[in-house]
Design brief:
5 helices; alpha/beta; five-stranded mixed beta sheet; 171 residues; Nucleotidyltransferase, domain 5
């Protein structure tokens, strides 16, 4: 029997929801740190709670910049079925459910429901090749450096003008 898990991923922590009984809305939740040393605990909790094998557990996460990547890689390597959802589609699903109070815990529950209700239309996730991931990391770094450079130019423009005036008047 397939089990459905929703994980709301943040920078510091992850909120996990196991949808025990989709029809009755029964669920179990838990919060973990979003650090590699906590991932084994997450894996253990998922298996103990669901009493299922990783191959029978579908985990739905929302793409959150880079914060979901390490956990996604770990769970995939452990044999879990993963779906990494587009945040816009997940948001529309939440609106269709009438969710108005948005918390990390409720987002995790919504993602579990989303995985259950859309199980046949959502594509399974697989990690990108290492070369692609490294290239994307370099592109993110380049973008950050370009922003830093532009910020420094903006800061130094008035300083250069002040220095030029100072040199002119000190003659």
């Amino acid at each position: 029997m397939t089990k459905y898990i929703g994980i709301d991923v943040g920078k510091a922590h992850v909120d996990i929801c196991w949808l025990k009984d989709p029809q009755a809305g029964k669920k179990t939740t838990k919060k973990f740190k979003n650090k590699p040393d906590a991932f084994v605990g997450i894996q253990r909790w998922l298996i103990e709670q669901t009493q299922g094998e990783p191959a029978n557990i579908i985990v739905l996460l929302e793409a959150t910049g880079v914060y979901h990547e390490a956990l996604s890689d770990f769970l995939y390597d452990q044999g879990f079925k993963l779906i990494v959802s587009n945040s816009g589609k997940a948001k529309k699903f939440a609106q269709s459910m009438g969710l108005v109070h948005k918390t990390d815990k409720s987002d995790a529950a919504m993602l579990a429901h989303y995985g259950y209700s859309q199980q046949y239309s959502l594509a399974p996730w697989k990690p990108e090749a290492q070369e692609i991931r490294e290239l994307k990391a370099m592109m993110r770094r380049l973008s950050a450096l370009e922003k830093d450079c532009q910020r420094e130019k903006t800061v130094w423009k008035p300083v250069r003008s002040a220095i030029a005036l100072s040199v002119y008047w000190d003659r």
